[in-house]
Amino acid sequence: MKIMRCKHWGWHNMKNEMHLQFSALSQNESFARVTVASFIAQLDPTLDELTEIKTVVSEAVTNAIIHGYDNDPDGVVYISCTLEDDNVVSLTIKDEGIGIIDIDEARQPLFTTKPELERSGMGFTIMENFMDEVEIFTSETKGTIIRLKKHLSKSKALCN
Ligand SMILES: Nc1ncnc2c1ncn2[C@@H]1O[C@H](COP(=O)(O)OP(=O)(O)OP(=O)(O)O)[C@@H](O)[C@H]1O
Ligand SMILES: [Mg+2]
């Protein structure tokens, strides 16, 4: 007997989400990167797609820690990851830090407010290159939310 996952009962088109929160410590960057990668692995991304998503998580989490919280370990970084339609990855990286003063300026390649830390000002440029959508919401009082979306090239068809 062959048991099939049917469109109406199975995983097809089901929304699947994951939430993480952790202290703003640089040693947690790799934890975040690896955890998100493990979660999205169920969509069978290509190696390139996986690397790109790990890189953008790293960039956004680093920004939250060093810019948002200025390395204050009492800060908390929040990540949500949602898988939809078998091939869409949506990510939200949030901090409750100082906020971005000028978003347009921050998005410019090579713009950085921390040249003394040898930052190259390429974080947002990398995010924009690797993801299909990048949205930035920021406020001096509430912090910063980065919303990222990527369509994977092949979908994991469970109903064929
Ligand atoms: N979460 C954040 N909170 C406050 N400011 C931020 C945040 N993320 C980015 N910024 C501001 O936007 C600027 C540009 O960010 P971007 O990631 O592009 O470059 P960078 O972090 O300075 O350098 P790099 O990412 O190449 O190491 C930062 O220098 C900082 O001023
Ligand atoms: Mg950066």
| Fraction of residues in H or I helices | 25-40%
CA-CA gap between termini: 16 Å
Q: Given the helix and strand composition, which structural class is it?
A: alpha+beta
Instruction: Characterize the main sheet.
Output: 5 strands, antiparallel
Number of helices: 4
Shape: globular
Cα-based radius of gyration, to the nearest Å: 17 Å
Give the helices and strands as they follow along the chain.
Answer: EHHEEHHEE
Task: Give the strand content.
Answer: 25-35%
Number of strands: 5
Q: Low-confidence parts lasting 5 or more residues at pLDDT below 50?
A: 6-10
Sheet with the most strands: spatial strand order: 1-2-3-5-4
Bound ligands, named by name, code or SMILES: adenosine-5'-triphosphate, magnesium ion
How much is the average pLDDT? 90
Characterise the protein shown here.
The chain is of the alpha+beta class. It has four helices and five strands, in the order βααββααββ. The chain has a five-stranded antiparallel β-sheet, covered by helices on one side. Strand 4 and strand 5 (143-151) form a beta hairpin. Helix 1 (28-40) packs antiparallel against helix 2 (47-68). The longest helix has 22 residues, at 47-68. The two termini are 16 Å apart.
